[in-house]
From TrEMBL:
A UniProt-annotated Pfam family: SBP_bac_5
Protein's name according to its UniProt entry: ABC transporter substrate-binding protein
Signal peptide residue numbers: 1-26
Bias type Basic and acidic residues, positions: 209-219
Region listing for Disordered, in residue ranges: 26-54, 204-230
Lineage: Bacteria, Bacillati, Actinomycetota, Actinomycetes, Kitasatosporales
SUPFAM superfamilies xref list: Periplasmic binding protein-like II
Solute-binding protein family domain segment(s): 94-484
Coiled coil ranges: none
Keywords, comma-separated and alphabetical: Signal
Length: 572
């Protein structure tokens, strides 16, 4: 699961929250670039870019990072087989070649993918990058001591489920072949048409076996990108990057690498970050943030200041906040009850509780409203802007609850504008108009995650959210609705515990498609079909509003990440 783009490592879906103040996780921005003099003008090389963040860039090892598209800060150091297209808006949701010459050549049934490396690829020490290095980089990500990365390679590669990494099994994975120094071949246990997206994960970063230091590698990973690590303090709390002189722009069409030096300072309070970016004094004039949003109050102040307003980047990321039902729990086993709640929802009040229309957009589909996801507009239970209480009452009567109904809504106590008390209260007030009394059950953050994403303790009615590991329907839709992904002993995200043979079959058929556009249309159609069952109530998609310093130029915010791309900015 992809995080909102302020978190570089994988957490549970319950921890994926819109934070005022961390995929990653989410739509086409209509106002991506800032309009200030700092954002316009011809960008030039030179200077120092400062990144002011709340969360440290922990586990700075390509094996341990859970990023999509290569990440933001990580992609300055780690190149991957493919990467995200570094352009504004919808164009930035495309996958493009990076170390590889193309997006890969699939076999007829998409179970074998072959990649050829570009010429002239080098590490920071001048040595050549080979296909064997990419194979080894992937294999070390299977080691228990380097866990934390995306699970897909373990799930997709033949033999991946049992492989323990090169420290225990020196033979390596037979399902990854390197017939020569420029060719790498992957053998999958089932068709996967979206493998080019997976190849953007940092696990495909090359790592030469001779330079691997296990858990210590993160202190000075060998750079394949435009910058090298010269300092890593406090487990990523302070990072200093300088130019990799052996990186060649001729082999890299995506990263601009304008600044000479990049300094990442983390562990800062959100208010402090926004204050520093607002004042934009000294080195902060050439500063950005990759994980700190403007909150409702801060945004109101910024909106009233023309100069500050021109220094706000707006982005969208593939993420949906929703109400989750567990049909195993009464009365949510009755479809008419779920439909009644769907009709009763007042999305205007929910959006206001999420920070207002500048920070949240109402949703009626589970898939985010981006083309790359295959978004197909539908509203099976039209509630208008403020809810349809009369239709909800009608359905409740049909369900046998003519005198009303009392239910409990579980939410997170964290003030996160997503699964928090504010959202829960907005829902409580809307459902009251339809004769539904909602009792609120707030849990502390860790307890909330452990409770709602466990089959044994999952409540019947709770707030959830889901983000995309990459901008397509596959990793967004399948974990929530594929019955074969129900986890009975661990974190389970299929809250409805849906195990529909026709849905599972269609997921398999879509996964065979290597035409990503055709696949997207099928994901959208499947979303519309499943949406009729009212297994979730989509509420809103978050919008990211972030300040940047007055000397920062070349603002690029793609629909893949929703945040400013540090590989594109200039400060001089």
């Amino acid at each position: 699961m992809r995080q909102p783009p302020f978190i570089s490592r994988r957490l549970t879906a319950a921890a994926a929250v819109l934070v005022v103040g961390a995929g990653a996780a989410a739509c086409g921005p209509q106002e991506s670039k800032g309009d200030s003099p700092g954002a316009s003008g011809t960008p030039h090389k030179g200077g120092t870019l400062t990144v002011l963040n709340s969360a440290p860039q922990e586990d700075f090892d390509p094996a341990r990072l859970y990023t999509s598209g290569g990440g933001n800060i990580p992609s300055l150091v780690f190149r991957t087989l493919t990467t995200r297209n570094r352009e504004d808006g919808a164009a930035g949701a495309k996958v493009v070649p990076d170390l590889a010459t193309d997006l890969g050549t699939p076999s007829k049934n998409a179970t074998v993918w072959t990649y050829t490396l570009k010429d002239g690829l080098k590490y920071e020490d001048g040595s050549r990058i080979t296909s064997a290095d990419i194979k080894y980089g992937i294999e070390r990500s299977f080691a228990a001591e380097l866990s934390g990365g995306a699970p897909y390679l373990r799930d997709w590669l033949i033999g991946g489920a049992d492989y323990q990494g090169p420290y225990k099994d020196k033979k390596g994975l037979d399902s990854i072949e390197t017939p020569d120094e420029k060719t790498i071949v992957f053998h999958l246990d089932k068709p996967e048409g979206e493998f080019p997206y997976l190849a953007t994960q940092t696990q495909t970063t090359p790592v030469p076996k001779a330079k691997d230091e296990g858990t210590k590698y993160e202190q000075h990973p060998l750079s394949s990108g435009p910058y090298r690590v010269v300092k890593n303090e406090g487990d990523g709390e302070r990072l200093v990057l300088e130019r990799n002189t052996h990186w060649s722009a001729a082999t890299d069409e995506e990263r601009k690498a304008y600044p000479d030096r990049i300094v990442v300072r983390s562990g800062l309070a959100s208010a402090v970050i926004n204050q520093r970016l607002s004042a934009s004094r000294g080195t902060d004039a050439a500063a950005v943030t990759t994980d700190t949003n403007l909150g409702p109050a801060e945004l109101a102040k910024v909106t009233g200041d023309k100069d500050l307003a021109a220094r706000v980047g707006t982005g969208h990321f593939g993420y949906t906040n929703y109400i989750a039902f567990n049909p195993k729990v009464k009365p949510f086993d009755n479809p008419k009850v779920r439909q009644a709640i769907s009709y009763a929802i007042d999305r205007s009040s929910v959006v206001n509780a999420a920070g207002g229309s500048s920070l949240a957009e109402p949703a009626t589909t589970f898939l985010p409203d981006q083309k790359s996801f295959g978004h197909t507009p539908y509203d099976h239970f039209p509630a208008g802007r403020t809810g349809n209480a009369s239709k909800a009452k009608e359905l409740l009567e049909e369900a046998g609850y003519a005198k009303g109904l009392t239910v409990t809504l579980t939410h997170d106590n964290e003030k996160n504008f997503a699964t928090s008390p504010e959202i829960a209260t907005a829902i409580q007030e809307a459902l009251k108009k339809a004769g539904i009394t909602v009792k609120l059950r707030g849990l502390e953050d860790n307890d909330y995650s452990d409770t709602v994403y466990n089959v044994k303790s999952e409540p019947g009615f709770f707030l959830g959210g889901w983000g995309a590991d990459w901008p397509s329907g596959g990793p967004f839709f399948a974990p929530i609705f594929d019955g074969r992904q129900i986890v009975k002993a661990g974190y389970n995200f299929n809250s409805a515990q849906l195990n529909d043979a026709s849905v599972n079959k269609e997921i398999d058929e879509i996964n065979k498609l290597t035409d990503l556009g055709a696949a997207a249309k099928r994901w959208g159609a499947l979303d519309k079909k499943v949406g009729e069952q009212a297994l979730t109530v989509p509420l809103f998609h978050p919008v990211y509003k972030r300040l940047y310093g007055k000397s920062v130029k070349n603002i690029v915010i793609s629909d893949w990440t929703g945040v400013l791309d540090v590989s594109q900015v200039a400060v001089k």
